[in-house]
Amino acid sequence: MNKLKANLPLLIILSGVIFSLYLLSQVADDIYFSGDGGLKALLAKQLGSGNLRFDLNLQVPPWVQNTWNSGLYPFEPPFSYKINNLYYITFPFTFPLVTAPFYAIFGYRGFYIIPLISTWIIWFNFYRFCQAFNLDKFIISIGLITLIFASPLTMYSSMYWEHTLAVCLAFSGLVIIFSNRENDFTNKQAILSGILIGLSVWFRPEFLALVAILIMLVIVSYLLKLDLITIIKDKKIIFLASLILTILCFFALNKMIYNHPLGAHAFQVVENFSLQERLLKSFKFFNELKDSLLKHFPIIYFAVGISVISIFQINLRLKIAIAQILLISALFLLIVPILIPSDGGKQWGSRFLLILIPLFNVIAISGLEKTWKIKQFGIRYISTGILAMLFVVGFNLNIIEGTETAYQKGKNENIEVLDFLRKDSNKIVAVANQYVGQSFEATFKQKIFFLTKQPDDVSKLGLALDEQGYKKFLYICPFYDKCFSSPNIPNKLEVAAKPKNLIIQLKKIKENKRYRIEEATIIQKPEKTNS
Fold first, then answer.
1. Which of 88-102, 105-119, 202-216, 301-315 has the lowest average pLDDT?
2. Hey, how many other C-beta atoms are within 10 angstroms of the C-beta on 255?
3. In the chain, pLDDT over 90 holds for what percent of residues?
4. Residue 517 contacts by C-beta under 8 Å, 6 or more apart in sequence?
5. What are phi and psi of 260, to 5 degrees?
6. What is the pLDDT of residue 268?
7. CA-CA distance, 58 to 153, in Å (whole number)?
8. 455-499, pLDDT tens digit by residue?
9. What residues have CB less than 8 Å from 11, skipping those under 6 apart?
10. Is 106 helix (H, G, I), strand (E, B) or coil?
11. What is the pLDDT of residues 3-51, one digit of tens each?
12. Residue 104: which H helix or E strand, with range?
């Protein structure tokens, strides 16, 4: 029995590994959970092929490039920006860069190696974190169960996104710091923790909030000798130096590539909003992120409840390290909305706050251990019952509903369209929304995509195609877009351009629950004859 208890955390992690591999098996080839995964894949494929440019350098004929430059480029802000006549995706270059070698070796499945392994490392680090607090193995096992099977974090293990990697880096750095609080914090540990936390910013800009929090707390701890803010007792200068230098290296690379230290992300957050607009949006984002976090990880209610009760109950008083984790988490939740350009768009739970899941989970099970020691009034059973109820809610939402929504919804329809595009002989594809091009980036070697949001855009494309001798092209309207701002796509569009007057005839050739595909035929408008 003791041997089983000792190995129970590792068995739970193993079960999580098996489940995450099952999730990966549900991912269809060349289909992404979110369209921006397609953009990152395009850049990763470019880098993996040996074309070491950080702008999206799609290989197309000059006439296509000219047509794109006239306003029909398949991607637009906030997902793509034109900088110095080059097109850049708005996401950091780092994630496509580190996944490019895996794609080159393993193909499409190689994209998922880093997100998957990063999630596994988070789980192991959570185990180490709990051991550093001398928590009971049984309590740690409960924490692992809630982390793996009642949080949205696991859903991201099989999505082509950089969030689990960024969380893995930042959380690993925090684990080093808190695991050595009572021991000698060595130079090596100070440097490594600073580098890891700094590297998280290389992949996700919201981790600048964590960097700012740690720098602030370390500096203030020089002035105020308070235990709550003394995150690092020794080697503060070494930690700050490694952390800041890591960030500065990233800023320098961004300056070289994008001519801005914050990269293309700056065009979303820094330059396109006034201070007043940013604050208003930040308040809106805060409420949306908070609500999403609470909904998808209800264990937080237990963590917050225990934290509040501990203020009034000495026997439930939080350890100073746990209180510091709570402080860091609260500040992170307040600062992140200022740094982000949106509430996250299509996601499963708040992806910008994923780092808070293991942190709040530590607080929750630390509180559970304290209540478990209280035998009076059935406190241990009441607290365990509340946590179990929250676990059931989280399990049902994340594992049952999450698997269906994140990995099955729309899957067949997307595969159907992808297969159609691969078999169809038309080389030109016009799309009403840039998400279509992002979703079917796997066909970019076979097809040339143009973004045509308005009838005039379709007309402009028709003229360019007529000059090149093309007589037909595909037009794709997704269910989430009111194509041409009208409930019905017209049967034909007239293109008035001297010396030619053209008609673009549209005919529906395929439709499913998510997409409607029209075949457009370019024909010469008959000239009127005088009778």
1. 301-315
2. 13
3. 71
4. 417, 420, 474, 475, 476, 477, 508, 509, 510, 511
5. -155, 130
6. 63
7. 33
8. 889 989 999 999 999 999 999 999 888 887 666 677 888 876 666
9. none
10. helix
11. 776 789 999 999 999 999 999 999 999 999 988 899 999 999 999 999 9
12. helix 94-106
Assess whether pLDDT exceeds 90 at residue 62: yes
CB-based burial of residue 61 (10 Å sphere; 0-12 exposed, 13-18 middle, 19+ buried)?
A: exposed
CA distance 466 to 450: 15
pLDDT at 212: 97
Alpha helix positions (H), 133-186: 137-149, 163-179
Shortest CA distance to 304 belongs to which of 330, 331, 337?
330
- CA atoms of 449 and 427, how far apart (whole Å): 9
User: CA 182 to CA 171: how far, in whole Å?
Assistant: 19
- Residues forming a β-bridge with 520: 473, 506
- Output the furthest CA–CA distance in the chain (Å, rounded): 104
Whether residue 246 is predicted with pLDDT greater than 60 in this model: the reply is yes
Contacts of 117 (CB under 8 A, 6+ apart): none
pLDDT > 70? residue 182:
no
Structure tokens at 462: 């028709």
How far is Cα 139 from Cα 133, in angstroms, rounded to an integer? Answer: 11
152 CA to centre of own chain: 12
pLDDT tens digits for range 344-358? 888 999 999 999 999
- Half-sphere exposure for 498 (CA within 13 Å, toward CB): 0
> 482: which 2 tokens?
């009111």
Q: Looking at this protein, which amino acid is placed at residue 193?
A: S
| Residue 356 to residue 210: CA distance in whole angstroms | 11
**Residues whose CB falls within 8 Å of the CB of residue 414, separated by 6 or more in sequence, listed in order:** 28, 31, 439, 440, 514
- 531 confidence band (pLDDT: 50, 70, 90): very low
Contact indicator for 441, 42 with CB cutoff of 8 Å: yes
Neighbouring CB atoms inside 10 A of 101's CB total: 14
pTM of the model: 0.93
Taking residue 111's Cβ as centre, other Cβ atoms within 10 Å add up to: 27
DSSP 8-state assignment for residue 451 = E
Strands 492-497 and 428-431: unpaired
Q: How far apart are CA 466 and CA 460, in angstroms?
A: 10
Cα-based torsion angle of the residue sequence 31, 33, 36, 40 in order, rounded to the nearest 10 degrees: -60
